[in-house]
Design a protein that fits this description.
EC number: 2.4.1.227
Mean pLDDT: 91
Structural class: alpha/beta
CATH class of the largest domain: Alpha Beta
Helix content: 25-40%
Order of helices and strands: EHEHEHEHEHEEHEHHEEHEHEHEHHH
Strand order of the largest sheet: 3-2-1-4-5-6-7
Pathway: Cell wall biogenesis; peptidoglycan biosynthesis
Number of helices: 14
CATH architecture of the largest domain: 3-Layer(aba) Sandwich
Strand content: 15-25%
Family: Belongs to the glycosyltransferase 28 family. MurG subfamily.
Number of strands: 13
Subcellular location: Cell membrane
Radius of gyration: 20 Å
Low-confidence stretches: none
CATH superfamily of the largest domain: Glycogen Phosphorylase B
Membrane topology: Peripheral membrane protein
Length: 355
């Protein structure tokens, strides 16, 4: 039996593509292990799948000044030592990394132990963690054609992002019951990301009375970001985070408002959901979400609204315009020729584990 180590963490976007690979890996009878941080979100997300989970020390490598910059390098070194010991003990045939800072010591330890390692870059431009991991990688998968020029030509492969297949099997009626919704109004799904997005949450809540005249709203607002004053409002269902019922909520939704994390928007593409993207601003990120969103806008999949310039009027107008033209966006997504990402990546894993 071949053994694989999956790694990635820090946000749900660094974990869910790994989860998408699990059914096929199990079909191929791989012995699957996961390396993540001691108490990161990845631990909670992986636990339901009953896969051996191994925690290591993790530190964040920041581009800006922080007192933690003086201590986190020691956490990274400790993480490398722990990852190295785990790899020596587990003797995997291959490693697959979805990124995040916890993955860096795992990928480097993989190279030190001569284990072939495949990494996946979701965004148009590689993040710092994957930039550090690239020299140790055997192959580098990516989502966007624009990314290929930023990667080593002998390692880069355009694969798209693995999408959890259960997301395609949602039940609209189950979602209606879950949210206590009726059938007389269309549904907007608002996704703030696994950690929530205060600006997106506030923008939607600012126009909630106007929205509820025409729509019902499912709002995934992030941990600790529920608004107690809006509980029990008819046509508005808010949740901190949803996992099991997410496929049903997607099935029920007519349009989606979302951040522009690469994995999130690839799910919207696979589900053919017309969407408004509100990317994380450059002032709060390295600008990757803006690039992701603009790529989707150019391809006719999305309307993009910049967080800094959103007003009640522009958001309302965007929502009504998107809903009115939803069939045009659906057709563009249907014509996109999205690749079979799971099989492409699984083939790379199989090839690497046979060497």
């Amino acid at each position: 039996m071949k053994r694989i180590i999956l790694t990635g963490g820090g946000t749900a976007g660094h974990v869910t593509p790994n989860i998408a690979l699990l059914p096929r890996l199990k079909e191929l009878q791989y012995d699957i292990h996961y390396i993540g941080s001691y108490n990161g979100i990845e631990k909670d997300l992986i636990e339901p799948f009953h896969i051996p989970y191994h925690g290591i020390s993790s530190g964040k490598l920041r581009r800006y000044f922080s007192m933690k910059n003086f201590t986190d390098p020691f956490r990274v070194l400790k993480g490398f030592h722990e990852a190295n010991q785990l790899i020596k003990a587990l003797k995997p045939d291959v490693i697959f990394s979805k990124g995040g800072f916890v993955s860096v010591p795992v990928v480097m330890a993989g190279k030190r132990n001569h284990v072939p390692t495949i990494i996946h870059e979701s965004d148009i431009t590689p993040g710092l963690a994957n930039k550090l991991s690239m020299p140790s990688a055997t192959k580098i998968c990516c989502n966007f054609p624009e990314t290929l020029k930023n990667l080593p030509a002998d390692k880069a492969i355009l694969t798209g992002s693995p999408i959890r297949q259960e997301l395609l099997t949602g039940d609209r009626e189950m979602a209606k019951k879950f949210c206590h919704f009726t059938s007389d109004k269309p549904v907007i799904l608002v996704i703030g990301g696994s950690l929530g997005a205060a600006a997106v949450n506030q923008a939607v809540r600012n126009i909630l009375p106007e929205l509820l005249e025409s729509f019902q709203i499912i709002h995934l607002c992030g941990k600790g970001k529920l608004d107690e004053s809006l509980i029990n409002i008819e046509g508005y269902a808010q949740f901190e985070y949803i996992q099991k019922e997410l496929k049903d909520l997607f099935a029920l939704s007519d349009i989606v408002i979302s951040r522009a994390g690469a994995n999130a928007i690839c799910e919207l593409l696979a589900l053919r959901k017309p969407n408004i993207l509100i990317p994380l601003p450059a002032s709060a990120s390295r600008g990757d979400q803006i690039l992701n969103a603009r790529s989707f806008e150019r391809q006719g999949f999305s309307i993009v609204l910049e967080e800094e310039s959103i007003t009640n009027e522009t958001l309302l107008d965007g929502i009504h315009r998107l809903y009115k033209n939803r069939d045009t966006y659906k057709k563009a997504m249907s014509d996109s020729g999205m690749q079979n990402s799971i099989e492409t990546i699984i083939n790379l894993i199989v090839q690497a584990s046979q060497k």
